[in-house]
Amino acid sequence: MSGTRTEPRAADGAAEAEAGGTPGSGPDSRTAHDPARRPSLRGWFDDIAMGLRFAFGGGREGWLRTCLTSVGVGVGVAVLLFAASVPHMMEAQDARKASWTPTSTFQEEPRKSDQTLLSDTANTEFRGESVRGRILDPDGEQPPVPAGLEAIPEPGEVVVSPKLRELLRSSEGDLLKPRVPGEITGTISKEGLAGPQELAFYAGSDDLTSDTASRVDGYGPQEGESQPLPAALMLLIVVACVVLLLPVGAFIAAAVRFGGERRDRRLAALRLTGADTRMTRRIAAGEAAGGSLLGLAVGGVFFLLLRESATAVRVQGLSLYSSDLLPHPGLTALLAIAVPGCAIAVTLLALRGVVIEPLGVVRQTPTRKRRLWWRVLPMLLGVALLLPYLGGFAEGETQSDVDTFQLAAAVVLILVGVTALLPWLVESVVRRTRGGPVALQLAVRRLQLDSGTSARAVSGVTVAIAGAIALQVLFGAVQEDETTLSGGPRFDSQLLVSTPAQEHATAEALRADLDRSQGVRETIALTSSFAIPADAGPDGMEDSVTVGDCASLRTLAKIDSCEPGDTFVVTDSDPGATPKPGTTYAMDDPAGDAKSGDKGRAERWKLPEDARPVSSHQAHDDFSVTSGILTTPEAVDDTRLTQGYSDVHVRTDPGNEDTTEHVRNTAARFSMAADTFNQTDTRVSQEFAAIKRGIYAASAALLLLIGASLTISTLEQLRERKRLLSVLVAFGTRRSTLGWSVFWQNAIPILLGVALAAATGVGLGLLLLQLAGVPMSVDWLAIGGLASLGGLLILLVTLLSAPVLWRMMRPDGLRTE
């Protein structure tokens, strides 16, 4: 291999200085040095049209180069089309969800009439999948009908979603059938489902009461403005969008430069036919435009194919109808203009470092060091844009459009700075690398000759990892901020079954049923409600009342001795808020009795004078009762606690995988309103959970894009080096050595890029934490996992390119024409 990037060429101006028919001096030449002979507008179009002909009519080599470019651009375009579909997707899903939401959800409950119905939730979960259920009981002949239903199901009937019908008909559905009450008589249509993979049902009933069910007079969008997202969550969305989309631009920019060396040699041949420098640049721009235009078409085909198959995919509980994926017209038009424009701009910028002469191509030699000063400017400018927000947003403050665009621009500039720094870093490292195995030397020598191509190929990976690390830092901190303790007693339980307290339907009754369930080892039962002092009036402060046997109460407080009939008062709170023995309480909600016309019927109960003070357990991972009354069932009639919840904590047999489903079935037989979920210490806000699902779904698509980017880039580089590989094999170089050289050629830029990405990502993430106003915390394990993604990509790309590499290392690669 030569140590320069100079190919055979004539001296500057030598061809033009020759007389007669020498190329470049004939009457048909359009030279750049003669303003009078500058081409007309038609000449510009002719040059661009010639470039298009080269793109589509350059023989097998031309078609292969154009196909690689179009596939690379097409993958990026498909991802951008999906991104352009997000506004319509969100609108369509929000509209469908609103169509089954009662209009009275956030309003005063309507009066009973011929046009109302009672609705009760029957949500459940089956092997990690959420199941949305509703029980409907019409009050008259003209009840409101949720979207997706033709009519309200009769008692004993149930209408299910297509996916739920399919599940119930399978062998796995036997465990779910007890929680879907009634005979299936219909299917919910598309208008009543969030997505095609949603599990949902509506069941008819005739025994709902207003004590537990809600009265509904209509379904549809809610009145009033929706609550804006907190600043931290909005910042998370902005950063996620930038992180997920910026690598796509880097991928497209790399794809349009496929076959650059062969293109430059072809342009040198055009110089022999009389083309000047400007003409060759216009021809190159036309060729790049041709590949990018074909890439637009390929991207559209990819998008349509993936759009039709989107109905079969469910990621983090999110599924879509193909009609939801409709790109925004304005964004689509912008994409159609921006992609060819980007392709032309990247091509012209690449030609600035190349001198194309009639007898060859001269490239900038590696002795000319890349300058560092301008490569750090984007990062510095991005940090400058973030400085006004380092104090954080005020509590409850939301971001304006200007804030959003400024934050997005700052993140873009910092991540773009990574792509600018990477070529300088790779060049600096490989210039100083000496020695090592033959495979490593071959890879290093190749990078010394042309490190820019490899750096561009992995720039998308570097941007993605840097952004992902920054997003992970922000993600973890926001998750901690958006997570609250869910509560659980000091009992090593796996499941919690909770149901509204009903008359004669206490926690003990639910516990008795659960004790007989398959896989249940032990249970504790607690009924929790509240009581208002009788002399405090409807607006008085209530005290919590928790009823359970002695063993159950000991899981909540430090109780030395306990007998049936004992009562305890928790004294951990403010002494003024501690219940006082001898106080008479109204056990039912007086306001609730007044609404129903039963004022004055509230049960009275007197807190015994001998109620003993106790302290609650205060361990950080326990449920701490900081105030209230603890009592045994013998001391109070717990059937009168109709305003609270009956909770049963279940310890299960770890050897039975379906214990959870059996427990849910038992709870559903007891009450369709029962909720069963895994006992955890935390619960995450719904907004954060929805953002998390969307980010994970988009990240999965980004990983596929990164893998495709590296694979296509590696294959294109191997194709350019086909003859060189054949020469090395002919001289006795082992194929395994060449295979390892390809590995190191990918590994060195990626490892350097990952190191740069990790440093940039952590720094950016810490800056974003200041903006979000959340405590600083870094999950180094998660960051290590993201960084190790680079190593996995090296192995994946090497394995995918191995068959092509082996096929190119054949003697017939020496043949030339």
Give me the number of helical elements. Answer: 21
- Helix share bin: 40-55%
The residue ranges in which pLDDT falls below 50 over 5 or more consecutive positions are: 1-36, 590-601, 619-625
Q: Please, how many domains?
A: 4
Tell the overall outline: elongated
**Overall SS class:** alpha+beta
Average pLDDT metric? 75
Instruction: Report the strand count.
Output: 22
Subunit organisation of the chains: single chain
Distance between the termini: 22 Å
Rg over CA atoms, rounded to whole Å, is 35 Å
Strand content: 5-15%
Give the biggest sheet: 11 strands, mixed
Plain-language structure description:
The protein is of the alpha+beta class. It has four domains: 40-94 and 231-305 and 321-359, no CATH class; 100-216, no CATH class; 376-485 and 684-817, no CATH class; 495-681, no CATH class. The chain contains 21 helices and 22 strands. Strands 11, 12, 13, 14, 15, 16, 17, 18, 19, 20 and 21 form an eleven-stranded mixed beta sheet that branches. Strands 1, 2, 3, 4, 5, 6 and 7 form a seven-stranded mixed beta sheet that branches. Strand 2 (124-126) and strand 3 (129-138) form a beta hairpin. Helix 3 (59-84) packs antiparallel against helix 18 (686-720), helix 13 packs parallel to helix 20 (735-772) and helix 13 (451-481) packs antiparallel against helix 21. The chain is elongated, with a radius of gyration of 35 Å. Residues 1-36, 590-601 and 619-625 have low confidence and may be disordered.
